[in-house]
Amino acid sequence: MSTRGNGWWAALAGVVAAGAGLALAELIAAWVDPASSPVLALGGVVVDSVPPWLKDVAVEWFGTADKLVLLSTMGVVLAAGAALSGWLELRRPPAGRVLLGAVGAVMALVAATRPEATPLWAAPAVVGVGAAVVLLRLLVARVPAPATTAAVPVAAGGIGAEPADTTAGTEAETGASRRTFLVWAGATAVGGVLALAASRTLAAGSRAVEVVREAIRLPGAATPAPAVPSGADLGVEGLTPYVTPNPDFYRIDTALRVPKVDPATWSLRVTGLVDEPFEISWDELLDLPMTEHHVTLCCVSNQVGGDLIDNALWLGYPVRELLARAGPQADADMVLSSSVDGWTAGTPLEALTDPDREALLAIGMNGEPLPEEHGFPARLVVPGLYGYVSATKWVTELKVTRFADDEGYWTPRGWSARGPVKLHSRIDVPRPGTPLEPGPVTLAGVAWAQHTGISAVEVRVDDGDWMPAELADTVGPDTWRQWRYVWDATAGDHSVLVRAVDADGQVQTEEEAPPAPDGATGHHSFGLFVG
Ligand SMILES: Nc1nc2c(c(=O)[nH]1)N[C@H]1C(S)=C(S)[C@@H](COP(=O)(O)O)O[C@H]1N2
Ligand SMILES: [Mo]
């Protein structure tokens, strides 16, 4: 006669126990530091250890939803592990508790060794998983015995009873013990939900940073940006706007939770190979004369035709002034900038000291304080370099150093130490698959070669000649430029291609390269059907 029918109850016990434990961990994390959440810490380690090809695949498939996909996948894996722990605890006690305890120990270790962690960051995992272990024991002890047709008069699952997998009760007894189990499991689940709700309420306190942000009045620019010429936007429907509104600006970072940085406690330290290291507070920074500059920021992971690129008006203090105040030493050639969350970028020193390149410690984006997900209260923006080697968000330190001695976050992960932006162009209009009719069809898009500038864009249809496109105005070489080409379309299948020429006369290569290690190349092209 089978006594195997209660494994599912045990699995449920495992999920409920582990869920409640992790909810308790969230509550403690909300008090210790929201980033000490064992789930976030574990996710952070996963993010830090994905190989470049997998990161590429994730970005390509899920775009900026990659974080959600990661957290959901972790949820499924954790739930499966929790179910297994319940089953093990029923069949092979204490194997279930041992499994939970082992996972908890790993989580504690991982949380306590995050770059910005203190030893206290282990507390949420230790307390949460400790609670999960106790709850697992209590719930599995109440897993109802499987019903049998034979009336074997054995009590199942009283308080403190051993797991009832080898005993079988009558249907009535099984019904009663099932109710007992469900009451216990239900109570545990309710406790978990309450803990989670309480943790969210506590975490809402950190929304205070958003309140501070909204109250900030940015200083005016001592060196304002030139006005955007009206001809910078060609007004083609569906074409990417010259300046990207903040809510549409692409977001890329390794932070599973947006760091909440209060300007009152923020400061930037300039350290390393300098004569006079110093630290500057938010208030001191705001008193400095600000520069405004349009810069198109671009991600090295951007695929040919991809949209991990946008343009904004940044307000900030020139990094070269900060460096001049510190006095870099002669043997330095790199600045390692770090974020509150431990992320780093290695930027060539000469790009930051160059008087002709507006590298900014930015505090404003399109007339607002930086949005939290774009680095509030301060970040770097350097024209001409990919974000991963320059655009540190939530920046707190500039360490003057040498490429021979230090490397940024992505370098040991398979990306080049130096990342100048590559010459590129993209077709935005029409989208592939748009129904078209013979006659004039407007092709339009953007082209970029930050800090060099774009001098021409050319379009080719099928095997025809490269035809010059009309170029929109720009404020300068540090932003992308819109282009437009009116094509006299004939019926049938066609392919369209675009390429750009930079201000030095260099023509965009047709050679295809993937994003790793230093940026994708190749012409953006696709098929169009005219009929
Ligand atoms: N702190 C921190 N700053 C960061 C990153 C990060 O992961 N953490 N990613 C960089 C990368 S790879 C890019 S492309 C830009 C993107 O900036 P955005 O999210 O404001 O568009 O931020 C850079 N700054
Ligand atoms: Mo990036």
TrEMBL record:
Parts of the chain that traverse the membrane: 68-88, 95-114, 120-140, 181-198
UniProt superkingdom: Bacteria
Listed Pfam families: Oxidored_molyb
InterPro entries found in the cross-reference section: Ig_E-set, OxRdtase_Mopterin-bd_dom, OxRdtase_Mopterin-bd_sf
Entry-linked Gene3D superfamilies: 2.60.40.650, Oxidoreductase, molybdopterin-binding domain
Keywords: Membrane, Transmembrane, Transmembrane helix
Oxidoreductase molybdopterin-binding domain residues: 256-410
Region of interest: Disordered: 506-531
PANTHER family noted in UniProt: SULFITE OXIDASE, MITOCHONDRIAL, SULFITE REDUCTASE
Protein name in the entry: Molybdopterin-dependent oxidoreductase
Organism per entry: Isoptericola haloaureus
Native organism taxonomy: Bacteria, Bacillati, Actinomycetota, Actinomycetes, Micrococcales
